[in-house]
Amino acid sequence: MIPTPGQSSPAAPLNEEAKQHAAGAMLGRAAASPERTLRRLFLTLFLRGRSARGLRKESAPNSVGSKLALTLVFYALFGLFALVFHGQPVFALSVYLHGMTFVFLGLFIAASAGEVLFNKEEADILLHRPVTARALLRAKIGVLVEISLWLAGAFNLGGFIAGVGASDGGGSFPVVHAISTSLEALFCTGCVVLSYQVCLRWFGRERLEGLMTATQVLVAIGAVLSSQLVPRLIVGVGGQMRLAASSWWIGLLPPAWFAGLDDALAGAGAGSSWGLAAWGVAATVVVLWLAFGTLARDYGSGLQTLNESSTPRRKGRARRRWIEVAIAMPPLRWWLRDSVSRAAFLLTAAYLMRDRDTKLRVYPGVAPMLVFPIIFMVQDHAKHGKGDFGVAFAGVFLGLVPVLGLTLVQYSQQWQAADLFRAAPIAGPAPLCHGARRAVLCFLTAPVLLVFGLLAWVMRGQVSELVLLIPGVIALPVYSLFPNLGGKGVPLSLPTEEAKSAGRGLTMMGVMVASGLLAGAATWAWSAGWFWWLIMFELAAVAALYGGMRASISAARWPPME
Amino acid sequence: MIVVQHLTKRFGAQTAVDDLSFEVPVGQILGFLGPNGAGKSTTLKMLTGMLEPNSGTATICGFDLLREPIEVKRHVGFVPESGAVFESLTGLEYLEMVAALYAIPPEAARARIRQFIAFFDLSFETLTDKLLGAYSKGMRRKVVITAALLHNPPVVFFDEPLDGLDANAAVGFKALIQTLAREGKTIVYSSHILDVVERVCDRVIIIDKGRMQVDGRPAELLAAHGADTLERLFTRLTGGTELERRAADFAKTFRP
Questions:
Q1: Which residues have a Cβ under 8 Å from the Cβ of A20 and sit 6 or more positions away?
Q2: How do residues A383-393 score in pLDDT, each as one tens digit?
Q3: Residue B48 is part of a domain; what is its CATH number?
Q4: Exposed, middle or buried by CB within 10 Å (0-12, 13-18, 19+), for B192?
Q5: A238-271 pLDDT, tens digit each
Q6: Are residues A331 and A390 in the same domain?
Q7: Cβ–Cβ contact A7 with B under 8 A
Q8: ipTM entry
Q9: Is residue B107 in a domain?
Q10: Nearest-CA distance from A297 to chain B in Å?
Q11: Do the chains contact at A128 and B73, CB–CB below 8 Å?
Q12: Whether this model's pTM surpasses 0.90
């Protein structure tokens, strides 16, 4: 009955078929349930991405799948660090494992949930089909949980072995830990969905897009903050890793609840662990009940809102007028001399401020990066009453903002519209890259510099020491050119699924290491009295690099469409 | 078959559809017209359960839109103006996914899909091997039309269905919907191609700013308003006056 490729059958009269169908004459294998179909659909879309251009099934777009596989390998390797807990108590090992798992899952779900839960094009395809909002939500959550479990499973592979060899562990640890990790994945996903639902209910549908961005930013910051807290909880006492005595508040953190479950069922079984475990299970049940039960109706409303898609008109006009006035005046007028750069600047600024998809990608991506320098500044301040390295690190870390911002602003759901740039009489992508670069510097980097400056000023109490931010500010032009090398920084020109790149993580790691080295050099030069020599040396180096990079970008031509 | 009662939809302060009421009997092809932003797509989205009206309701095949939305969706097919599809699925994967959502058994779905392939002159190889993102606009539109008719709905809403179809496919499609109407399907056809509407539709409704302007058979409407074509009647009712003169004036601005 199933035809082979190339075969086609003569068309039977449609009305005949219609009559057969209407009479219920279609017999044979039952159809898959809508829930199962939807789940398979969303998993396929996640693995393949949501858009494709000019490609055959076997040749693309499997990039997301292969990137995911690479990520799983990376997680598994990173998870091997858990082996240092061999011979240690189950609770200490589980706090570490669940803490790190919570961070990874939190970041993954925060980054993916917006795209998975509220995809605009999906409304025209699915909302008129006979499926309930709850079925859609359940299928999407199922996929998020499934992929979360892949990631968690990969990361916890080393932990499973370490748990078997724990001082109070045993053969039951892998099973118990798998259960507690599954509960944690459900809890994480439920929390993100619940926060959307609560926002929808409290603040209304009209503000959904802004709320989605804010929710993801908060979740991402929370996850990174947790990752900074976890290592500080465990201390070595007589060769055994224990929780620090001052860490009574650990019971408030979700990873501890699930670690309690491990300890209760596969570890020492302390009374406090049973309490934490009970709390964890109860919290997961309540979150799931609220997110997928009582508040599921709000999800349907949220999808409809995307379908209605209206941005407050007056606000948009006012903002545009403000930008137009700004670029018509110095210093922006001097900075944006050619019309193409000016147009790219306006386009990038508009997307950074208005486009839901761009905002959901850029702000939650950039926000966690800002946590590290703030933690360094606070720590240095608390320990020594001063924060030389913290302030210098904050300044240099600024470089990550344009690197990440410019990388992320290249992706858009409307990426095909960027063909316009190729059709225009522009020799290469350079002026577009420069416009986007300047918009990111103005609207992302400058506000962060202001925040860091204010924080440093409040902590140090004197303006003069803000000069420690200068090495970072000087390096900004080079950092901001980096994503544009080879003419790659054309705004809104790449499909969104390519944003899920493992390679970007490596780039960011490299940039972080470079930032750390420069911050270290700045701190050393400051304490040794060589700071202004360092600044002069850095100015010369940046000038040389900047000139070379600009020349390279200007020479870049449009790459082939494929 | 379709009964619309005082349907109203507001987006903030803007009223997109304002107290719209009409009925469409079984087997009728209703042309649903209006200028850009008149509220056509919003009305169709409400009637297919995609948008919730602020007030008013509708029944389709006897099912109330607000109380039984899933039953309504089971009985309607919809070709949205956007022609959106999941681009990273092949055509066959997409259509099989749609069939499963309507609980059509896989074998029956495949047989049905093959009939559509033959009708639209698509190759099965294209459908199985190529991702929808690689389809031409016309091919994608054929897949969207197939997806709307696959479950054999008694009511079908078309929003600009001919967009992207080549001349042969368009002729075939027009003949198809006329035959379907004769077979008892109720069709709501929204389009800006007015000569097609004039030839295909039994009845025409023109709305503007969310409100109904006229409702009747094309010939009767033309006679009643003294217009020779539906196009003339449309421009007269929706404020499109002196278009030729304005176009001529504007064209002069292109002179070097």
A1: A26
A2: 655 556 777 88
A3: 3.40.50.300
A4: middle
A5: 555 566 555 666 777 788 889 889 988 988 877 7
A6: yes
A7: yes
A8: 0.82
A9: no
A10: 13
A11: yes
A12: no
